[in-house]
Amino acid sequence: MAILGYARVSTQDQNLTGQIEALKAAGADLIYREKISGARADRPQLAKLMASLKAGDVVLVTKLDRLGRSTRELLDLIERISKAGAAFRSIGDPLWDTSSSQGRLLSTLLAAIAEFERDLIKERTGEGRRRAVANGVKFGRKPKLSEYQRKEAIKRRAERMLAEVRYIAKRTILEALFSYRRASLTR
């Protein structure tokens, strides 16, 4: 069982000393250090810490915001730590100790709230999309061919004159013809 500390500051001008001292005082055997924004997804030292986790290890931070910037990211990391058989502790936030039943309860409650929030966002987004479609909003990229070009391509295809169409890739014309055919079949 090892106590693995994680210290992070957002900019090169900030100093890790305070965090390192607190982690050592709390018994950290090894401390992973980073001077990188928490908003970045690629945090190499955090990735090394997560890869080195073994059952019985404890991940220790001075404050929750050192590990993750958003609730969702924090909960995902804590879940990954738990799946590795390790525990998570925050020195500045004593309730966050997943080796205790109280800490696990807090994690579970926040995960449930985050999931509820995601579901609400999905519902609102879906509702908004349905309203937009009902109001005639079209999603997706704009067609490459204008209505005139599409009709001209269909006419020339019928007359076997597609080779005469200039400045438009043959693949673009074929895609337009296939989408026209699909649209006419669903009418």
- Name the quaternary structure: single chain
| Shape category | elongated
For this structure, the CATH topology of the largest domain is Rossmann fold
The CATH homologous superfamily of the largest domain is termed Resolvase, N-terminal catalytic domain
Q: State the CATH class of the largest domain.
A: Alpha Beta
Tell me the number of strands: 4
Task: Give the % helix.
Answer: 40-55%
Mean pLDDT: 82
The largest sheet has its strands arranged as 2-1-3-4
State the end-to-end CA separation: 66 Å
Secondary structure topology:
Blueprint: E1 3-9, H1 17-25, E2 30-35, H2 44-52, E3 58-61, H3 71-83, E4 87-90, H4 101-134, H5 147-158, H6 170-186
Parallel strand pairs: 1-2, 1-3, 3-4
Helix pairs in contact: 3-4
Task: Characterize the structure shown.
There is one protein chain. By secondary structure, the protein is of the alpha/beta class. The protein folds into two domains: 3-112, Resolvase, N-terminal catalytic domain (Rossmann fold, 3-Layer(aba) Sandwich); 147-186, no CATH class. 50% of the residues lie in helices and 11% in strands. The protein has helices at residues 17-25, 44-52, 71-83, 101-134, 147-158, 170-186, and strands at residues 3-9, 30-35, 58-61, 87-90. The chain has a four-stranded parallel beta sheet, with helices on both faces. Strand 1, helix 1 (17-25) and strand 2 (30-35) form a beta-alpha-beta unit. Helix 3 crosses helix 4. The longest helix is centred in the middle third of the chain and has 34 residues, at 101-134. The protein is elongated. The relative contact order is 0.08. The mean pLDDT is 82.
